[in-house]
Write a structure and sequence with these properties.
- The chain has 2 helices and 6 strands.
- The chain has one domain.
- Strands 1, 2, 3, 4, 5 and 6 form a 6-stranded antiparallel β-sheet that branches.
- With 180 residues, the protein is an alpha+beta fold.
Length: 180
């Protein structure tokens, strides 16, 4: 008599609290930088076996959508699980049609724990460090009031703004009329 075959169901891949905090800080920083809400909704691992987060900008009813350059997704609803402050949008069960900026899904692949998916091309990039896939580092590490001093040997605000713009140019879809 052969022993019974044991089948173990793999536990779903879920974001840690530190990862959720990083996702939220990124959405909040993007909201502040772009001057408009950026939502980061974490999707349940129940269907896919891995949680994923979609970053999106809510569209205005009057926005004209270029379907060749924009992927529209629905974020929100009664069971929505957001990371961050929702770009200042009020709490509620509203559903938003959003321009999808990018998606990051957890993965058990050898190439990395995180897969960033471009919504237009469906191309993906993998990494074991989520910060490598985000448009800029939003870490609070090392920040102190001593860092506030404006020393002459540090880059000017204009230099920092130009550097941030270069980083975001590669990470964010081309701006549309409502970004200005």
């Amino acid at each position: 008599m052969e022993p019974p075959i044991m089948t173990a169901t793999e536990p779903p891949l879920v974001f840690t609290q530190n990862e959720i905090d990083l996702i939220g800080h990124t959405a909040d920083a993007m909201s502040a930088y772009m001057g408009m809400p950026v939502l980061a909704e974490i999707m349940d691992a129940e269907d896919t076996g891995a949680e994923w987060v979609a970053f999106g900008i809510p569209l205005d009813i009057d926005d004209e959508i270029d379907e060749e350059a924009t992927v529209v997704i629905q974020l929100g609803g009664p069971d929505a699980r957001y990371a961050g402050n929702r770009g200042g949008l009020g709490a509620g069960d509203d559903i938003y049609s959003c321009e999808c900026l990018w998606i990051i899904q957890l993965s058990d692949d050898d190439t990395g724990r995180y897969m960033k998916v471009d919504p237009l091309t469906q191309e993906f990039t993998s990494s074991n460090d989520m910060r490598d896939l985000l448009p800029f580092n939003v870490s609070d590490e090392g920040f102190s009031t001593a860092d506030i001093d404006d020393d002459d040997d540090e880059p000017s605000d204009d230099d920092e703004t130009r550097a941030m713009n270069r980083l975001l140019d590669d990470a964010v879809p081309p701006p549309r009329h409502r970004l200005h």
